[in-house]
Amino acid sequence: MKKYTHIVFGDSATGLVRYYFSQHQHPLNGDVICFGDDLSIGPIDNLDSLDGVTQRQKWLNTLYTASFPDYLDHGSNNLQDYSQFGNINEKSTVIIWHARNVRDQTCLAYLCNKLNKHILYEIDVHKYNDRFVNKNGYALRSLAECNISVVGELIEEYQIMHPSQKQLLSNQWISLSQSDSSLRIFSKDKVKIVPINYYDDEILNHCTRDYIKAAKVIGLTMGNTNQLVSDTFIQWRLKYLVNIGDVDYTGELLTMRDYKVKKV
User: Fold this and answer.
1) Is 67 within 8 Å of 46 (Cβ atoms)?
2) DSSP E strands: which ranges in the chain?
């Protein structure tokens, strides 16, 4: 068993941390676990059971097939292994990498609840942002936006998570997981539940009376919100607006580059 266990949210960010350790003999080198699921969307109740995870996967299948029509034929049943978090040795030093966005903060709340017996450490991208903004002129919204040199600076900032913060996040997870909502945002340093149609007005605002590429509407919607939301989710909602008649389309209603849309 390695002394350190790093938990990173998302494939891109995980790859970045793994690459850093492969290139540097750092004293914090250890196992790197990818938390690949995005708990800011979809049902999140009962994730400790196979039934709960399976129900979540069914919801995600509906979402992803809207953007990737052949999704069900390519590994759609690779469920997030939530049991692996419960199997982390209590003697291992757990370091959680996160930023101040809804995906990271929802997953962080889950881990604080799941790993309640562990002493947790954190690497908070947000705490590095003042220095990063001074150097680059913009703020980081996620670890995946970092380059390898920034990862090297971030790792020196790891610190223990205060027990009161851990308990606060654990309680927040309990509250979130008891709701039947399928969409969450991050606002005023807290994850909040919102209606599933939260982004619909913003999507419609970027549709015009003339046909424009669906990819442009999706990109504008993502770029004009202060939330970190996936293009997959926005396309799912755009296709919903098509289905209910608020938006018309031309082309093939497949991937975002296959059709154009206009406001009805």
Assistant:
1) no
2) 4-9, 31-35, 93-98, 120-124, 159-160, 184-187, 190-193, 212-213, 247-251, 259-263
Number of H helices, E strands in the chain: 10, 10
Which of 263, 174, 167 is closest to 214 using CA atoms?
263
Which residue, among 54, 52, 16, has the nearest Cα to 34 in the 3D structure?
16
Kindly tell me the burial class for residue 220, based on how many C-beta atoms sit within 10 Å of its own C-beta (0-12, 13-18, 19 or more). Answer: middle
Residues 15-54: b if buried by 16+ CB within 10 A, e if exposed: ebbeebbeeeeeebbbbbbbbebbbbbbbbeebeeeebbe
Q: Report the 10 Å Cβ neighbour count for 240.
A: 16
Checking DSSP bridges between strand 93-98 and strand 120-124, what pairing results, if any?
parallel
Q: Residue 143 and residue 157: Cα distance in Å, rounded?
A: 14
Q: Out of 111-125, 128-142, 220-234, which region has the weakest mean confidence (pLDDT)?
A: 128-142
Judged by phi (left if over 0) then psi (alpha if -120 to 50, else beta), residue 216 lies in alpha
pLDDT at residue 30 above 80? yes
pTM beyond 0.85: yes
d(CA 264, CA 252): 18
Asked if 239 and 249 count as a contact pair (C-beta separation under 8 A), the reply is no
What span, in angstroms and rounded, lies between the C-alpha atoms of 191 and 102?
A: 6
Inter-residue contact 225 to 187 (CB < 8 Å): no
- Residue 188 reports pLDDT greater than 60: yes
Strands 4-9 and 212-213: unpaired
Residue type, 250: T
